[in-house]
Every structure is written in C-alpha cells, then in structure tokens.
C-alpha cells in the first residue's frame, strides 16, 4: 500500500501503543510518527490503562499478551474513556477466539504479528464498513488445526485428557501434537 492510498488521520492524531517488546515498540512508534501520529508509549497493562485514563487516545495499538496481564484490559479502559477510539489489537498468538474477544470488547481490527506499520496504519484508518484485503500470507491448514487444538487445550485448563476427549482424539496423539512447535 502506498502512502497516497492511506486515508487522512482525523483531527486528533493521538496514538497509544502498548507492547512489552521494547524494540518492536520503538520501531513502530518511529514509523507511526513519520505517518503523522502523535505517539505515546506503554510497556505494560498498568501503564496503558493509566495513559488511557489520563489522555484517552483517538487511536491505539495494543498487544494482546503483556507481561503483567491481558491487553484487552487496556482496550476496555480506552473504550470507557473514549468510545470513538479506533483500536487495533496485535498478537503473536493469532487465534479465532482471541480475535472474537477483542472485537467484542471494542477493537476495530485484529492483526497477527509480525505486522508492519503499513498494516497497522491501514487498520487504524479504514472505514467501519471497509472489508480488509485478503491476507498476503494466510495461515496454512496445519496452522489452523494447531490453533484450534491450542484454543481447546487452553479452554480445558491445559488438561490433556479432557482436551483429547473433547477433540475426539487419542490422548497420546494429542501429547505428540502439543510437544511440537507450531506449523508455519
């Protein structure tokens, strides 16, 4: 996407970025400042909530999993103070259940890491009825299966036997799948 195709930033260019990966946070902040946003940074849920209360931003980019909690708590804090804010949730753990939870709480969009500044800008500035373009690198069928198994495993409080029963799968097969790295 070129710079010319991106819609204009509204009258309030305030952007809060909340992520516990400091290197990523700084890189994204520099890129978003170049695009015209006035960036505030937070490294934790506590910092994000404090900044959302003190100066509710017009835009926000929030990592889902932070060291001190869940980024959805920051999304809720932003929504309480500024219901019209556009919020994008970022995560390295892309799963359908967390995407649904993020959108229900009020996130405008949900992006899997690694997301670059162009993806974030497009998500923040898209109209409410705009459909996003198809992904350049969609998840493979193996990855989707793995994500589903991980979600059920988490919902069963990481109980292998219960997860295997609910997935109608042999427990040892499930253990082998859980021991492997996630597919690409």
Structure, explained:
Strands 2-1-3-6-7 form a five-stranded parallel sheet, sandwiched between helices. It has a two-stranded antiparallel sheet with strand order 4-5. It has 184 residues and is α/β, with parallel strands linked by helices. 46% of the residues lie in helices and 16% in strands. The chain folds into two domains: 3-125, Response regulator (Rossmann fold), CATH 3.40.50; 141-179, Homeodomain-like (Arc Repressor Mutant, subunit A, Orthogonal Bundle), CATH 1.10.10.60. Helix 2 runs parallel beside helix 3 and helix 6 crosses helix 7 (160-167). A hairpin with a 2-residue loop joins strand 4 and strand 5 (69-70).
What order do the helices and strands come in, and which of them pair?
Blueprint: E1 14-18, H1 22-34, E2 38-42, H2 45-54, E3 59-63, E4 65-66, E5 69-70, H3 72-81, E6 86-91, H4 96-105, E7 109-112, H5 117-125, H6 141-155, H7 160-167, H8 171-179
Parallel strand pairs: 1-2, 1-3, 3-6, 6-7
Antiparallel strand pairs: 4-5
Helix pairs in contact: 2-3, 6-7
- β-strand amount: 15-25%
In helices, the fraction of residues equals: 40-55%
Total domains: 2
Q: Over all CA atoms, what is the radius of gyration?
A: 18 Å
CATH topology value of the largest domain: Rossmann fold
Coarse structural class:
alpha/beta
Keywords: DNA-binding, Phosphoprotein, Transcription, Transcription regulation, Two-component regulatory system
Protein name: ActR/PrrA/RegA family redox response regulator transcription factor
Pfam family, one: Response_reg
Domain Response regulatory: 14-128
